[in-house]
Amino acid sequence: MNSLLTDRAVSHPDRLAALDALAILDTPAEPGFDDVVRLATRLCSVPVALVSLVSRERQWFKARVGFDASETDLDRSVCKLALTAPDLLTIPDLAADPRTAGNPLVSGDPHIRFYAGAPLRLDGGLVIGSLCVIDTVPRPEGLTPEQADDLRALARQVVAQLDLRIALRTRNAALAAEVRLKGDVLRSESRYRSLFEKLDTGFCVIEMRFEDEDGGLRAVDYRFLEVNPAFAAQTGLADAAGCWMRDLAPDHEQHWFDLYGHVALTGEAVRLENGAASLDRWYDVQAFRVGAPEERHVAILFNDISDRRAAEVALRASDTRSRLAQEAGQVGTFELDVATDEIVVSAEYCRLHGLPVAPVYTLDAVTAPVLMADRATLSTAASRADGSAAEPIEYRIRRADDGALRWIARQWQPTRDERGTIVRWFGTVRDVTERHVAQESLRVSEERLSLAFEASGSLGWWDWDIPNDRLYAGEHFARMYGVDPALAVGGAPLTAFVDGIHPDDRGWVGERIQQALDTGGEFTEEYRLLAPDGTVTWVYARGRCYHDAAGRPLRFPGVVTDITEAKHAGLRQEALLKLGDHLRDLDTVADFVQAAAKTMAEVLGATRAGYGLVNPVDETIDIPTDWCAPTVGSLSGAHAFRDYGSYIDNLKRGEIVVIEDVTQDPRCQAMADMFVAIGVRSLIDVPVMERDRLVGVGFVHYARARSFRPEEIAFIRTVTDRVQVAVARVQAEQQRVLLNGELSHRLKNTLAMVQGIAGQTLRAVPDQAPVKAFTERLIALSRAHDVLMQDSWAAAPIRSIVEKVLALQTTLTRFRIAGPTLALAPQATLSLSLLLHELATNAIKYGALSVEGGIVHVAWRIEEGAERTVVLEWRERGGPPATAPTRRGFGARLIQTGLLGTRDTHLDYTPTGLDAEFRAPISQVVAS
Amino acid sequence: MTASSDRRPIVLLIENEPIQMMVLSDLIEEAGCDVVEATTTAKAIQILEHRGDIRVVVADLDVHGSVLGLQLAAMIRDRWPPVELILTGAVKPDLSSIPARGVFYDKPFDQGRLVQSIRSFVSANQ
């Protein structure tokens, strides 16, 4: 029981903790303790004394006399028994006491026999060991009472010594701590200074200045106490230390002062980002109070984040882009079992398809979102089995959850078993919608443009990358210029396209292109293209050359329109106008035909053109002249129709003959060689009919086979018709001239015969004057016919009539003739002639012309009014006074009747001579 | 043609129209001349070749058309230079094609002037 109690005391935690707190075990010997044990041996007359400290597993001797070992295990310890003793423990014979008889130190060497120990009891009552004295012989009387008291006193002294040790140690520790602390502060000071100097972050300590403001303090300025080198770099403020902020940056925002003031007053640390407009920067700022509150010192750490902020702004702008990029970058994986059609999918795969996240789906389930239109691109059981489905594909899905239309790109590879059979497909899917959207919009816009262009059928586009000499062009453009469209889409050198330009235009078009390159200006030209098959296309090209900033040609885009039709229509129109002028000016059939032939050949690009006059009876065609290309011989002369095939029959029926290839057309196939020999491979013959009879043929020849457009045939028909009309006009003119000549001839001969008959008949009449008057009137009438005949009896110039008729009587010097130009109608011509003849006859007989120096004013004018009227005046001057005739003969009556029998005649017989006026409506006088 | 002393100047008249022939013959005689009539160009040339006394030829150009008539006039001027030429016609020819000294009367014309022309030719040549 005792040993149990002893063991419990030994291992009492408080006791052990107190022992540990003493930190005395294994420490060197100390004179204070050594003195105690020496005193103890003397006082108690024993050879051995020990300060024994009992720990959990051993007893250690802080001081010892008469004992070699510094410690023993607890089996050899007697002191442990003292732990539980209320006072001094005395055992007179250790060998006799059952608690100690077995102790090796008792039974064995050094054979101790007597023990007395005083417990070492600390302030709290805890016993940590004992001060003991030992003898090797039993001492049945034990210690004397004085010896026992001394030992107790010495034990108390040991405890006191131990307390002192603790006090000392605490003091030393405090001292050591103080020393250590001093070193730390020194070290940290230098570390912070170094940091402070080397820091990229701006750092400063400021002292705030406040002013009283109603009910509080207002921060008005601060002064820099300390600034680090980075401060200047961050703020742009050099040598700031010692300066007031207001002096350095007068515009510095008040909010900064308020902020630091707040920190200085409250001790509250702040961190924020803010802009400093006066410094044109953004800062990340940390501010905290340092030192004593009343000092109002604030330390500030700050970073210039202007660049970062700019980057952030840019980042935000590209946020959408990057988000989309991320979305596009998402990859789902899957593994398809060929045998079961089960597909093991990743969560991302499910999300991409909008399917609930699950590890396994059936193939049908993952195929369901795919658009019907795109399912044809998907693999089939067969293509999966034989491996032909290995190509990557892209398809559209209607996402199962949100219905979004997405593009999915799928790549996969088969895995095979040992027999080579495909058992699984492993692959990835990616959402590539963004790329498709971009491509799609591009494609759509291109397609839209291209469609618009191509649909027009006559519009092509090009875009010339000048530095790389790559001309990109639409399909239509490429075809027009004879370049493979597939090549043009990828860009081809300019020369490839220039080759398509007509050789006659290539030179000047090249110059214009160069001009546009030099000036960076517009290019707007009409020119011809020549296809390898000889087809000429007119184009209207409109583009612009763009220069880069350095003024170098960069791009040259444009559009080109096929204006062949419009151009040809214009050319044809122009040609017809010109031809019309020619035909008016020319007056022989040969000239007409030449002009028409040239026109047709030029406009239609023919090698020969002409017009032939047909003799329908012997079926010959007489070609007065034709127009031929330099290499082609003329066909002028007479030709037998039948030599050239059977199409004469078509012509005779008034049908236009179009032969696109003489070697193919059944009507002339047999004599194709003959056609080819005269340079004719294709031709158009246009018949000219007159009262259902073939009278002429317009023809156009080509040295090569070609087809004809309806407009071209219509053009030939028009030209031919015009030639025919012109020819007919000339022929009619010639006939009319002939007829008029004959008519006039006969008329005048008749008049001469009338004259002769009258003369013969009236030969016996004594008074020949009336006969003479009759003859003269006849002659006057004849002269009027002469004048009329000059313009084919259609009209006569009034002055010619006046002069002709008056000249019959006397010289024209006796007349003053004046009046506007008028073309007289035939009837008016005859009437005027007879009227003037009678007036002149009278003037010679009785009036102004009967005396020397007398003259007659003959004038005519047009009088405006309700009805425009021609007024003819006859005023005689310088002759005798005029008197009205007493006799009303033929002459007087004719004068009274006036012009055209209107009887609108005013005769005034004045002393100075006759004044006469004759009026007639202009509509009757003037030729229409 | 009876006696050389009272022989009147001979005028060759070429005309194929009977009434005109009658009128012109009268006018020639009125001018104091004898008339030799021919109705064709060939006949007229024959007469000129066989007679040397023709002083004046009055020819109607309409007999064979003005061109033929003018050719005749030119031939007469060539072969018988002294013979005077008086031409008539319904169509006035190009005046430059009328031989030198020849005169032209556009039908119908003032008969008195024709008579005067004949007289002046005959008297000038006497």
Summarize the structure.
The complex is a heterodimer of chains A (about 950) and B (about 130). Chain A is of the alpha+beta class.
Largest sheet of chain B: 5 strands, parallel
Helical fraction of chain A equals 40-55%
Report the portion of residues of chain B in β strands.
Answer: 15-25%
The domain tally of chain B reads 1
| Strand element count of chain A | 37
Strand order of the largest sheet of chain B: 2-1-3-4-5
Largest interface: A-B, 22 and 16 residues
Shape of chain A: elongated
CATH architecture of the largest domain in chain A: 2-Layer Sandwich
- Give the ordered list of helices and strands of chain B: EHEHEHEEH
Description:
The complex is a heterodimer of chains A (928) and B (126). Chain A is α+β, with helices and mostly antiparallel strands. Chain A has six domains: 170 residues, Beta-Lactamase, CATH 3.30.450.40; 116 residues, Beta-Lactamase; 119 residues, Beta-Lactamase, CATH 3.30.450; 106 residues, 2-Layer Sandwich (Beta-Lactamase), CATH 3.30.450; 150 residues, GAF domain (Beta-Lactamase); 140 residues, Histidine kinase-like ATPase, C-terminal domain (Heat Shock Protein 90). In chain A, the strands form seven sheets. In chain A, strands 24, 25, 26, 27, 28, 29 and 30 form a seven-stranded antiparallel β-sheet that branches. A six-stranded antiparallel β-sheet of chain A has the order 3-2-1-6-5-4. In chain A, a hairpin with a 4-residue loop joins strand 9 and strand 10. In chain A, helix 20 runs antiparallel to helix 21, helix 21 packs antiparallel against helix 24 and helix 26 runs parallel beside helix 27. Chain A is elongated, with a radius of gyration of 70 Å. The N and C termini of chain A lie far apart (171 Å). Chain B has 126 residues and is an alpha/beta fold. Chain B has one domain: 3-Layer(aba) Sandwich (Rossmann fold), CATH 3.40.50. A five-stranded parallel β-sheet of chain B has the order 2-1-3-4-5, with helices on both faces. In chain B, strand 3, helix 3 and strand 4 form a beta-alpha-beta unit. The two termini of chain B are 17 Å apart. The N terminus of chain B is likely disordered. At the A-B interface, helix 24 and helix 25 of A face helix 1 of B.
